[in-house]
């Protein structure tokens, strides 16, 4: 039905759209931690039992902002994809896990989807429209894009 070139174009565009959507979610969540005040985020982290909340709150905020931008650009995807997935696993452990699966009850459904999407993006190669792929091609390294 599709020839190989069209299939590769569809993969690149769909990977770009996925990276941008997931990256934007992380970017907005991270910015909210700053605009709402890191002191409030730190207090919330302390309340839910996050170890070293005073360090964890700004670290998570920075990770979500920088990681969100990295996903959007397709840069350092293995690093940021894994870190963001771990971030969401922490959200499951400390916040959402006790509420069950359903997002409508504050459960872990949404953050699990973000963790899974982050891992898929981490090891997708980012597609032809990712900074990682452009750098790979520019340096002459192979490393074909998987998705």
TrEMBL record:
- Which N-terminal stretch is annotated as signal sequence? none
Q: Which UniProt keywords apply?
A: Cell membrane, Membrane, Transmembrane, Transmembrane helix
Tell whether Protein transport is among the UniProt keywords. no
Give the membrane topology: Multi-pass membrane protein
Entry keyword annotation includes Cell membrane: yes
Q: What compartments host this protein?
A: Cell membrane
> Where is it found, in Gene Ontology cellular component terms?
plasma membrane
One Pfam family cited in the UniProt record for this chain: DoxX
The residue ranges crossing the membrane are 12-32, 52-73, 80-98, 110-131
Q: Which family does it belong to?
A: Belongs to the DoxX family.
- Mind telling me what this protein is named? Putative oxidoreductase
Organism encoding this protein: Planomonospora venezuelensis
